[in-house]
Amino acid sequence: xxxxxxxxxxxxxxxxxxxxxxxxxxxxxxxxxxxxxxxxxxxxxxxxxxxxxxxxxxxxxxxxxxxxxxxxxxxxxxxxxxxxxxxxxxxxxxxxxxxxxxxxxxxxxxxxxxxxxxxxxxxxxxxxxxxxxxxxxxxxxxxxxxxxxxxxxxxxxxxxxxxxxxxxxxxxxxxxxxxxxxxxxxxxxxxxxxxxxxxxxxxxxxxxxxxxxxxxxxxxxxxxxxxxxxxxxxxxxxxxxxxxxxxxxxxxxxxxxxxxxxxxxxxxxxxxxxxxxxxxxxxxxxxxxxxxxxxxxxxxxxxxxxxxxxxxxxxxxxxxxxxxxxxxxxxxxxxxxxxxxxxxxxxxxxxxxxxxxxxxxxxxxxxxxxxxxxxxxxxxxxxxxxxxxxxxxxxxxxxxxxxx
Amino acid sequence: xxxxxxxxxxxxxxxxxxxxxxxxxxxxxxxxxxxxxxxxxxxxxxxxxxxxxxxxxxxxxxxxxxxxxxxxxxxxxxxxxxxxxxxxxxxxxxxxxxxxxxxxxxxxxxxxxxxxxxxxxxxxxxxxxxxxxxxxxxxxxxxxxxxxxxxxxxxxxxxxxxxxxxxxxxxxxxxxxxxxxxxxxxxxxxxxxxxxxxxxxxxxxxxxxxxxxxxxxxxxxxxxxxxxxxxxxxxxxxxxxxxxxxxxxxxxxxxxxxxxxxxxxxxxxxxxxxxxxxxxxxxxxxxxxxxxxxxxxxxxxxxxxxxxxxxxxxxxxxxxxxxxxxxxxxxxxxxxxxxxxxxxxxxxxxxxxxxxxxxxxxxxxxxxxxxxxxxxxxxxxxxxxxxxxxxxxxxxxxxxxxxx
Amino acid sequence: xxxxxxxxxxxxxxxxxxxxxxxxxxxxxxxxxxxxxxxxxxxxxxxxxxxxxxxxxxxxxxxxxxxxxxxxxxxxxxxxxxxxxxxxxxxxxxxxxxxxxxxxxxxxxxxxxxxxxxxxxxxxxxxxxxxxxxxxxxxxxxxxxxxxxxxxxxxxxxxxxxxxxxxxxxxxxxxxxxxxxxxxxxxxxxxxxxxxxxxxxxxxxxxxxxxxxxxxxxxxxxxxxxxxxxxxxxxxxxxxxxxxxxxxxxxxxxxxxxxxxxxxxxxxxxxxxxxxxxxxxxxxxxxxxxxxxxxxxxxxxxxxxxxxxxxxxxxxxxxxxxxxxxxxxxxxxxxxxxxxxxxxxxxxxxxxxxxxxxxxxxxxxxxxxxxxxxxxxxxxxxxxxxxxxxxxxxxxxxxxxxxx
Amino acid sequence: xxxxxxxxxxxxxxxxxxxxxxxxxxxxxxxxxxxxxxxxxxxxxxxxxxxxxxxxxxxxxxxxxxxxxxxxxxxxxxxxxxxxxxxxxxxxxxxxxxxxxxxxxxxxxxxxxxxxxxxxxxxxxxxxxxxxxxxxxxxxxxxxxxxxxxxxxxxxxxxxxxxxxxxxxxxxxxxxxxxxxxxxxxxxxxxxxxxxxxxxxxxxxxxxxxxxxxxxxxxxxxxxxxxxxxxxxxxxxxxxxxxxxxxxxxxxxxxxxxxxxxxxxxxxxxxxxxxxxxxxxxxxxxxxxxxxxxxxxxxxxxxxxxxxxxxxxxxxxxxxxxxxxxxxxxxxxxxxxxxxxxxxxxxxxxxxxxxxxxxxxxxxxxxxxxxxxxxxxxxxxxxxxxxxxxxxxxxxxxxxxxxx
Lengths: 404, 404, 404, 404
What we know:
Four copies of one chain form a homotetramer. In chain A, helix 1 crosses helix 2, helix 1 packs across helix 12 (326-346) and helix 5 crosses helix 7 (175-185). In chain A, the strands form two sheets. Chain A has a seven-stranded parallel β-sheet, sandwiched between helices. A four-stranded mixed β-sheet of chain A has the order 8-7-9-10. In chain A, helix 8 (202-211) links the parallel strand 5 (189-192) and strand 6. Chain A has helices at residues 20-34, 72-81, 87-92, 94-101, 114-132, 158-166, 175-185, 202-211, 224-237, 253-259, 262-280, 326-346, 371-386, and strands at 10-15, 60-66, 104-106, 136-141, 189-192, 214-217, 241-251, 288-292, 299-309, 315-325, 351-352. The first copy, chain A, has 404 residues and is of the alpha/beta class. Chains in contact: A-B, A-C, B-D, C-D. Chains A and C meet through strand 7, strand 8 and strand 9 of A and strand 7, strand 8 and strand 9 of C.
């Protein structure tokens, strides 16, 4: 590699780096890099991406911050005990996880001002980039869902925000937005995988645009919502009117406990129903519940009941029961997002990357919710964007799956 | 209308014209023409078809043949009693049905040769066209599913076929193929809505191509298979490997009884699984049963169980339970097909219209099974084809739904 | 009939006499009395009750009160239009319903004191008994679920109650309890088919005991709860530990609207889970939701998800989806209760009839919730009680189903 | 223990001793005896059996025969790998399994006559009894389901049977019946846990009666059939008419492969539907399928769809989806049966023990299929039988769960 060549390495900085999702993504990345797992469950590993110069799995370095200090190898053992993956897998990548652990920082209690907190995280990200010689860092918010904050003038004016951030003792931003502001300040790409405020505040969106970073969001589309945005277009394509779409979600684990908080669940539910209303109309009756059922652990079971009318008023009912480890569905999407945003950065794109909507319940910059359309948009974007990456970029001959 | 103007009228000739499906299609067409039903459940009534010069619902004349002689108004009352639609609807269109009845012919017992039978049906179609001054006739096979015939040399050679058809007492073609041959001979467009042999025999496909008719098939995609071809692409887009997709179908009514015959059901099951294998691979384990449960009447209940593996071998299971009157799902598709094939004829198209795949379990001329892709293909085809219909064609200002 | 013979007639006085449930019960009773319906769906029509002198269906006279004034024949047409039963049935008993209408009284706005209201209803019941020469009147509360009242000293002391009832402008009792007090005052038997306070207030229970009436309650066990009290004993009999039992209920119609009120639903949900906890333990996690989905009409769809552990910690999951018109399940139980309480009265029983627990979610006087045990208790009670009815009682030769 | 005291030990001789079920039962027994597992999932461990002198789990010795030679500790590891139980459990009882292995005999290829085969097995059983000083041996057939044999005169006459068994080269009995005959000859108690012919042949039933052994059967009621015999009585108790009860079973593993054989599955299906017909009538439409879906492993998923009519012809539908490791449901029942038949032997009972019907799909000596009734019968039998065991019998102070 000549001095002027860009680095082959890309950083993935996880907000909530010791949570189930980040831990699973790390395990999976290490397993893929070692070639002991197949790239199953990743969109970017499909044959349609064969010619796209995506960063290889062995060229992604993980960092991040978390309030927890539990070592990653220990977290991996906990998740294996819950049945998420075989213990053998956690054992096989234990050394890799221990090395990744060295890149993780503690999200400490609030400093004197929120700007101080932002500086500190931005410095951590910059240090991570420098230490590993990364050509791009992609920050992904995979932390627990927060309650949505009440609106505030500082969410709409950069001046008001600057003032608020500098005021000692004032915490105008929720933690997810502090982290998003830090990503912008560090010039990192950003993906919001939770429904938390994060970068969705208008003032931060404006900062992100001005900073020229590539970003995408929001709230990973993994299970029930994925299914709904696959099924709803079927009804409309056949000219049916969907009258109601009711849903019940049961899950335990950390997510179940978080979502047992009515405030936290409110942002989740709003995000879950947004696509449905966009696809089948605002009048659809769509009650939706998330219940914390600790004995079910990290497996989420979702039951949906759809009622539609068609020709001459005939009725169709459809029930679906979906059962899966939510973190195991989400983890590959996180890796897909890191690869996609790194590609965007390589191609010099900035601003919201609307074509990444297939990964999100609430796609920024797009009103396309139908999953098949989103997948086509993403695929075409990747193939188009590939043409704009400079030929001297390292991974040009990289196969899509990153295995070597 | 000047002498040189094409007729505004199109004929729909149903093979099995007194069955549940044809009767329902007739009731629906009459109700739409009278403006007492909304065009719900039809693909061609969606806003995407607003600019396409489709034949209006009040410009379609129904004819056909059947082995049964039960008058249509009586059939309509039977179906209403089974809960398929309100009796009020059957009453409201009783006079229209009685007039349609005059266009129906008896499918008599076999004549001296099969060519004689073909001639007779072709003559019936021609007479129907002449009597109503139809610019196009679209023949749609909506008869009961037949057992698949054993292969025969006459299925592959026109000369062998001609000889066989002329041989007294020899019945080389199944009834569905006799009717298909008659459609070709009469120069009618053709749609095969059943899995029966119909026009799928190579020798008839060749005749149809040579005759320059537009045709499409095969086996209406109404319920469970529709759902499968919507869901399967979700798994592949996310990079999952589908291991098994098991299905159980319960239904009564006439279809339940027909499909209780193991021979008849064989062609149905083969057709149902074809798309699934094309979408998720030949290795998927896909047991499929259709049970005759008379007490369920014409409502079909289908349960599917899908098992897939994703990232790091994680398991997803999805169950779906679909419940609907199958004939009520199929009838609007039959009307869509009549309108689409009439459009093709108006535009001078001939041969297989592969872009009609969204209507079929086993799409002729196409290996696209993913429903979202099929819908896009159909929509784009209709918009493209609209440009090729001559501007002097009557229905140019016709709104898509045909209501006026 | 000699002067000293007891009347062959029994009255059924419905609180909420024009609601879906009471109307359905009335239609059914008239149809059974006319012999145009089979006694399907009634427990008391099973062969086990063949020798029990139950009142015949043509010997039950319906009365009651309601806030609505809609004539019963009109209510019947409304329900038929919603698909609950064929219009032909409503037509066939229209005259009977019109005659029953004459027995219905308006539940007027509150009078000067609640004692005044009680007197008025008690007088209505007494007049009903006298007018038809009824040997027994059974009051059944089938009105809409009320919010549970806050506790009050008058609920626990007869003296405090008397004082409160006599205080002008004070409404200490909810309407369901006013009606229950009237039943006691009129010496009628009583069944509480709703979870409303009704006769469950301690002060009214004491009054009922003192008055020597037979009574039973509470909250009809029709669908999901029935199913749960059938299934839960299976798990315990096999030594399984049930960890969670989650439920989602979807319904529209009047009940859906009532239960969309969080206060009204609270009493319903408490009642629904009581049996479950009694059967599988207080530690079971049992989230339960009732959603108002207007397009589903009076059909209730209930999904349950059960998770249990057995031998060596093995996991069992069971999902159930139950779909039925709730009023159609409840109406025969109301008739069963009228017959059973009339039998109790014939045999001179007073106080709570604990053996009627099979009809209730929250069985008064019993901690038996397992449905099979309740059915056996009821059957044995009926056979035992039959021996205590005097031989001169009219319906001694009455077959159990009342058809003649 | 004085010389005249009966031995405290009981033997369990498994036909198919290395299969999933027998291996799981052995692991569970060893874990219970060691006190490292709770007696969850066993009927005989419920509080109702507290006073019954059942043999303790540490007083049961396992023996048996099988065509396979795979060591039990290895089988246990295989099953653990399939997710049936944690590997830690298999490790913890590996030494116990190795010791049990020494009691297992190979079921060799056929000898010169079938009587020779019977003698050999009977000798093995007798040697097992003598070696361990067992007071009773209970033979349990837990082998793979066989095709049902065609009827034969030797199945009905002891003389004909004796002659046939002595004829060289003639194999009139299926293997399960050879083993049953050996149990009789050895004076062992017997339970038929499969639908195979086993001891159900009239000639063997007569031999068993004459030999004075206690026996019970047939075909373990573990999952779907258990559920059906719990639910069906609900419908009849409420006076509903069940019109159809359709079922689909998906499973892989060894059982899935065995039942993929249409002949083997025939006996299974007949047995599964017998109870259903007894409970809801012969006219119920009850299609039932078992599909081999290898990727599902040993987890069985069963979907049932029930359609019933009630009051005024109203329709109820119920769907159930049951998912569990079948062997894990069956294994505790096998231990329950060993304890129950040892109790019967202790009390001097002989002949069919009809009160054990709660364990079987096809209960010998009883036409009671309703599970709640069967459980009550079994409980009462155990309590009654306890009174007949001699007071000097060893395990009189044994707590029901056998833990000490």
